[in-house]
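Lecture 7 notes: from sequence to structure.

We start with a single chain of 137 residues. Read the sequence below before looking at the structure.
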Amino acid sequence: LPAALELLARETNDAGSTRVELHVAGEAVALPEEIKTALFRVTQEALANVAKHARAHVVQVALSFDADGVSLDIRDDGCGFELERVQLDPNRGIGLRNMRERLESIGGSFEVRSAPGAGTALHAKVPPEAIRRLGAG
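Now the structure, written as tokens:
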């Protein structure tokens, strides 16, 4: 997963005006394919949303491995948005809903924080029990 995210960050940096900074913390553990795919797709969708909507200069992507599982934090310095309004509009926020469903389907959680003028922060978390459960299957 770290290598795939590194490649995604490099490709994004080469393609546009937004700079992606990737940070990996902790000792990377072997993850079940479903978890790697979910976290990669969430990052992909988040970077697509930033390119499409955020007008951000910098996106920080942090992948962390620790005793609490694996977490992915993505923050941008873009224009932000009114989260409640986007969540109430059935024609908007489809990517955010997809990210949430993707994480919940593997036993993880997903949070979004945003406000106009304040950028956006996404937090995805997969606890150790979900990693063990999917690893056993």
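The chain has five helices and five strands. Keep this in mind for problem set 3.
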